[in-house]
Amino acid sequence: MRVLMIAPPGAGKGTQGARIAAHFGVPHLATGDLLRRHVARGTPLGRTVQAYLDRGGLVPDRLMQDLVRKALADATTGGGGYVLDGYPRNPAQAWAAYQIATSIGATAQVALHLRTDDDEVVRRLLARAGIEHRSDDTEPVIRRRLALYHEVTEPILTWYDRRGILLSIDGMPDADRVTAAVIPALEARRACHVDRPGPVPELLIAAGAVSCG
Ligand code: AMP
């Protein structure tokens, strides 16, 4: 199963991403976690990106592209799937993700969008701040991350919709109920089997030319 997760901060990407990955037996690649690990280890990349994370800004596309190319190549060695969580986050990254995935024959089958309400995600993230102590879980930084999401991330959903791979699920209920909605919906998409992953089958599915199940 090859899934991209696109949702605002606090929508439950981390929790749902881990559960989806466990269900399908594929790696969960969360770009925020990968970056935070670099920061914690004090790598050159970690030192470069720390200020972006602290301010809730987006790490430059070129750095993200290198990180994701390597993570996806490692994950799909031997033909495996992935749950890519937190990437892409803007149109340039959406195009880069498509090109990287095409080059390794592993384009996404589903772009999973979790729908939420801004006030609810702010409440969730402030609650998380008391537990995880992330540098970017303060109210001004949360608001900035949300604003960026609406400005540059949300518009890419249209592209996935047009490609016929968008799956939009209500992320407002509690985590177990969201998982109970997400897993069967992904299973249904998996049944939509195509022999040759890539743009042509996806376009055929969107046009109803390839039947599912
Ligand atoms: P997350 O854990 O997904 O909320 O990401 C935490 C932070 O990591 C974000 O606020 C960004 O600073 C950075 N980050 C994660 N993914 C990306 C990405 N695809 N592009 C740019 N920055 C990212």
UniProtKB/TrEMBL annotation:
PROSITE patterns: ADENYLATE_KINASE. Residues 30-59 are annotated as: NMP. ATP binds at G10, A11, G12, K13, G14, T15, R128, P173. Keywords: ATP-binding, Cytoplasm, Kinase, Nucleotide biosynthesis, Nucleotide-binding, Transferase. Pathway: Purine metabolism; AMP biosynthesis via salvage pathway; AMP from ADP: step 1/1. The keyword ATP-binding applies. GO terms for biological process: AMP salvage. It comes from the Bacteria. It holds the Pfam family ADK. It catalyses: AMP + ATP = 2 ADP. CDD domains: ADK (cd01428). Catalyzes the reversible transfer of the terminal phosphate group between ATP and AMP. Plays an important role in cellular energy homeostasis and in adenine nucleotide metabolism. Consists of three domains, a large central CORE domain and two small peripheral domains, NMPbind and LID, which undergo movements during catalysis. The LID domain closes over the site of phosphoryl transfer upon ATP binding. Assembling and dissambling the active center during each catalytic cycle provides an effective means to prevent ATP hydrolysis. This is Adenylate kinase. It comes from Dactylosporangium siamense.
